[in-house]
UniProtKB/TrEMBL annotation:
HAMAP family: Cardiolipin_synth_Cls (MF_01916). It is found in: Cell inner membrane; Cell membrane. It comes from Ilyobacter polytropus (strain ATCC 51220 / DSM 2926 / LMG 16218 / CuHBu1). The keyword Cell inner membrane applies. One of its GO terms (molecular function) is cardiolipin synthase activity. This is Cardiolipin synthase. Residues 209-236, 395-422 form the PLD phosphodiesterase domain. The active site is at residues 214, 216, 221, 400, 402, 407.
């Protein structure tokens, strides 16, 4: 009986794929590069195309959910910034205005930052701060492993929840797929409010491989928050198969915490599927203003915008802001990323900037965590090198840092990689920092990392083996879904 069903399915799979093509063209209306990619895969590969599209391509239902997220994300507690400090940022005024108007990402001025590049130091600082929590702890993570480090954090969260502290935890359904269901039940039994972002309804597969929350957020008592590239697990303190882990995270204090809190509540509401409440009065009724959005004392001079991005926002805010940074650069652009798979516009913008005299240095890992992404990254290196862009391969461990620095004036740090998936498909969050002191520290760290890297020269690139070239060419074809 089962064999008969399989034979029937085999006969009609091509027609099912054609139906998917019709959906792509007339219903989903994807970007042309995505549409052509999926149409080609579906038409030329029957079974592989069918399965791949179910896992990575089918999205119109999730897009509708994402639109609700975008609409919900329009609620904001404060008005767009009106501050004399903004006059010092005239070069970036258009970018700041764009982010405020399209994403309601308010520029804040009274903040302080601490940069972490070592996982052990970061997690010790986080644990210390979590133990001090008296009101609430809010966390949103792509990966939160149930290993020794993860259990330390879970233990702290349980203790704080037991003492009456509000603990809300968002875990991604794919990134945290190894987390046992009984662990999540145990956390909930410990009075921790746990939500799973797009969970899998099948034991070994998740049909929602796209549209993940890739964010790493931790907020404590409206006093401080963390965002960046570090997930929680032993890999991120150098105890995984990739060895030493090099990443970037920032700890923030000040009025930026209100903006970070709003991003967390946007995710929380999206998962809870609550109705959007647009007016400030209704938001106040829903979320205790004094508890979550208190007035902040002036504690620093760092100007920061928190920018969230999601697959079906009307605008791809993080990607657009990075593009603006590239086009406005006059002196240099420094980029650290584990995956360099730019879209066509950013790719061309980097080439134009380089040919216009801007010094561009891009640092990538010298070892892969995902083979196809690694080879796709290297496929873009050669063309960039011929345009004068300098590439470096980081050798002192695995580079997972997501940083862009421009002209000693602006930098961005967060969860977003330099690739299609982060720019278009994932829920991401970055801090855009307009502060000379913080930017200078990030630049100094980048220069220190150069000493631990080797230059990828034209000679080295052109002398790579034929098999390597083949891997790069094939992997690049899949760039739109990597």
């Amino acid at each position: 009986m089962v064999l008969e069903h399989l034979i029937f399915f085999a006969k009609y799979i091509y027609f099912i794929n054609i139906l998917f093509v019709v959906v792509i063209i007339f219903v989903e209306r994807k970007k042309p590069v995505y549409s052509l990619f999926w149409i080609t895969v579906l038409v030329l590969t029957s079974y592989i195309g069918f399965i791949s599209y179910l896992l990575f391509g089918l999205s119109f239902r999730k897009k509708r959910l994402s639109k609700k997220f975008y609409m919900r994300n329009l609620f904001r507690y404060t008005n767009p910034s009106e501050n004399n400090e903004a006059k010092k940022l005239e070069k970036w005024e258009q970018m700041i205005q764009y982010l405020e108007l399209t994403g309601k990402n308010r520029l804040t001025f009274s903040n302080s930052t601490v940069i972490f590049t070592d996982g052990k130091k970061l997690f010790q600082d986080m644990k210390d701060e979590l133990k001090k929590a008296t009101s609430y702890i809010h966390m949103e993570y792509f990966i939160f492993d149930n290993d020794a480090l993860g259990k330390e954090f879970f233990s702290i969260l349980k203790e704080k929840a037991k003492s009456g502290v509000e603990v809300k935890l968002i875990l991604d359904g794919v990134g945290c797929r190894k987390l046992p269901l009984k662990k999540i039940v145990a956390l909930r039994d410990s009075k921790i409010d746990v939500l799973v972002f797009f969970p899998s309804y099948f034991p070994f597969i998740n049909l929602r491989a796209n549209y993940r929350t890739h964010r790493k957020i931790c907020i404590v008592d409206a006093k401080l928050g963390y965002i960046g590239g570090f997930n929680i697990g032993k890999d991120y303190i150098g105890k995984g198969h990739l060895g030493k882990w090099r990443d970037t995270h920032i700890k923030m204090k000040g009025e930026i915490l209100n903006e970070l809190q709003k991003e967390f509540f946007s995710s929380w509401d999206f998962i809870k599927n609550q109705k959007f409440l647009s007016f400030k009065k209704k938001v106040r009724n829903r979320y205790d203003e004094k508890k979550y959005f208190p007035e902040k004392e002036k504690i620093g001079n760092s100007s920061i915008q928190i920018v969230g991005s999601a697959p079906d926002y009307e605008f791809h805010l993080i990607r657009d802001a990075i593009l603006h940074m590239i086009t406005k650069a006059k002196k240099y652009i420094y980029i650290q990323t584990p995956y360099f798979i730019p879209d066509d516009i950013i790719f061309e913008a980097l080439k134009i900037a380089s040919l216009s005299g801007v010094n561009i240095k891009i640092m990538i890992p010298n070892k892969p965590d995902h083979l196809m992404v690694y080879w796709a990254t290297h496929s873009y290196v050669g063309e960039m090198i011929t345009m004068g862009v300098k590439f470096y391969s980081y050798k002192k461990g695995f580079l997972h840092s997501k940083v862009v620095i421009v002209d000693d004036e602006v930098a961005t740090v967060g969860s977003s990689n330099f690739d299609y998936r982060s720019f278009y498909q994932n829920f991401e969050i970055n801090a855009f920092i307009y502060d000379f002191d913080t930017v200078k520290k990030l630049k100094a760290t980048f220069i220190e990392d150069l000493a631990e890297s080797s230059s990828i020269t034209k000679e080295i690139y052109h002398n790579r083996k034929l098999l390597v070239k083949f891997k790069e060419s094939i992997s690049r074809l899949f760039s739109p879904i990597l």
